[in-house]
Design goal:
- The strands form 2 sheets. This protein has a two-stranded antiparallel sheet.
- It is globular, with a radius of gyration of 11 Å.
- By secondary structure, the protein is an alpha+beta fold.
- The protein has 2 helices and 4 strands; from the N terminus they run βαββαβ.
- Bound molecules: iron/sulfur cluster.
- Ferredoxins are iron-sulfur proteins that transfer electrons in a wide variety of metabolic reactions.
- Keywords: 3Fe-4S, Electron transport, Iron, Iron-sulfur, Metal-binding, Transport.
- Pfam families: Fer4_15.
- This is Ferredoxin.
């Protein structure tokens, strides 16, 4: 799967980093960082983080999706 974040929407609160810390984290400058192609074992965590993002900035795409 692939992960993208729309940084025009992201407000950097870090809820995703709490929900799926293996995939999302806030760097020392306060910017959200993420693993763009996480292991399939992280799918549920990524999907949950995407659902819980208050501004819906996270997109989780299955392989083959545009
Ligand atoms: S939960 Fe959403 S708004 Fe908050 S840091 Fe993560 S991507 Fe950005």
């Amino acid at each position: 799967m692939r992960v993208t974040i729309d940084f025009d929407k992201c407000e950097g609160h870090g809820l995703c980093a709490l929900t799926a810390p293996e995939i999302f984290w806030i760097d020392d400058n306060g910017y959200t960082q993420f693993v763009a192609e996480p292991d399939d074992a992280e799918r549920d965590n990524v999907v949950r983080a995407a659902q819980e993002c208050p501004v819906r900035a996270i997109q989780a795409l299955e392989d083959g999706q545009a």
